[in-house]
Fold this protein.
Amino acid sequence: MSAQERHILVIGAGILGLSSAWYLLERGARVTILDREPIRDAASCGNAGLISLGHPPLTRPGVSIQGLKWMFDKRSPLYIKPRLDGDLARWLWTFHRHCTRSHYEGTMEVLCELGRLSADCFESILAETAIDCDWQRRGWDDVCLHESSLDHAEEEAGLLARFGFHSERVDGDALRAEAPAYTDAVRGAIRFEDSATLSPQAFTAGLARELEARGATIRTDCTVETILLRGDRVEGVRLEDGEELTAEATVLAAGVWSDQLARAIGLRIPMQPARGYHRDLVGLESMPPRGCVLNETFIAVSPFHDTLRLAGTLELSGFDAPWLDDRLAHLTTAGSRYLRGVDTATVTQEWAGYRPCTADGMPVVGAVPRRPGLYVGTGHAMMGMTLGPASGRLIAEAIYEQAPALDSPLLAAARY
C-alpha cells in the first residue's frame, strides 16, 4: 500500500469528521467514518447555521462573573444545574482563570484566522459539489433592544476591527426599512460585513453523500467501544459488537464523547457537555435578510430555505438530563421581542444536543504526541459548523505531515 493509499478511521460523522474525510480523500486516503447515530441526528445538524467568522471564544473577559448571575436561572443564556461533580468544579475554575483580556486577545488572533480559512474551505467544497444548503454570505447583525447594549456591541466590534473584521452601526429604523421583520422595540444593530448562513442539516447530509460518491465508507448505528493500542501507538478501534478495525491513523472527532474514549487510553480532553437548543419556524410573513444574534439573549437566528432557526443557550447539566421545556420556549418568547411573527409561526422541528466545550475556550485539533497514530478534532463549542471545515483540513495536513495552513499551540492536543 502506497503512502497515499493509507487507511484512515474517522470516529464521528459530524462536520469535523466529514470535513477531515473530505481532505483525506483529496490526498488519496481510504477513509472509513464511524458514528453511533444517523447523520441527521448529529450535533452538527443542530447548529444555528450562522457561520460567524471572528466569533469570540466562550472565555471572554468578565463572562465567568456574569455567569454567576445567570447560572441558577433556567431561562438565562448560561444555566448550570447545581450538583456535586468534581469534573465540573475543575472545569469551572479553569474556565474562570481563562476569562482574561490577554487570553482573549491570543485566542481571537487564532480563531479569526481559522474562521477565514474555514470560509475558504466552505466555498471550495460548495464549488466542487452540488450541495444545496442555501449558503448566503451576507454578513450578520448583532441586534440590540437597548441603546446601552448597542454602545457595548459597538465597543466589542472595535476590538474585532484589529483582526480585520469591519462593522457599521445601523439604527432601528434603517433595519425595519430593510426588513419589516424587526419589531419597533429594536434600537439598532452592529453589522459585520463578513460571515454567512446555511442549513446545517443540508450541508452535512450533502457532504456525506459526496464523500460516499468519492469512495468513503460511512457506517452509522455502530458504537466505538474503545481505541486499540499496541504499546503507545493507536492502531484502530474495537466496536461494541466486538469487531476490530485497524488503520494507519485514527481521527477522534466524536464531539463531547471524545473525552470518554480518550480517557480509556490514558488521555484527557477536559470538556463539559453544554446542551444547546433550537427551534425551526416556517410561515413568517417576513424574515431577516441575513443571520443575526439577538444581543441581550445570545440567541442566534438564521434564515435558510423557507425556515427561520432560533438557536442558543448553554446548559451545563451533565449527560442524560431531560430537556428543559422552559429553555425551548424561551427561544420563542425572547425572539418575539426582536422579530415579528415568531410567536405565531409554525414550529417544524425542535432539537437539543451537546456542544463540546473546553475549559480554555479553544478547540483541540491535531496529533496526540503521546499516542502516535491518533489525531483529535473536538472542543469547538457552538462554533463547530463555523470552524469544522478548516479544522478538518488541518487534521488531514497533520496526518500527511504537510505544512499546516495554521499552526498554534492554542489548538494543540499536546496542551493537555
About this structure: The CA atoms of residues 275 and 353 lie 5 Å apart. The longest strand covers residues 346-358.
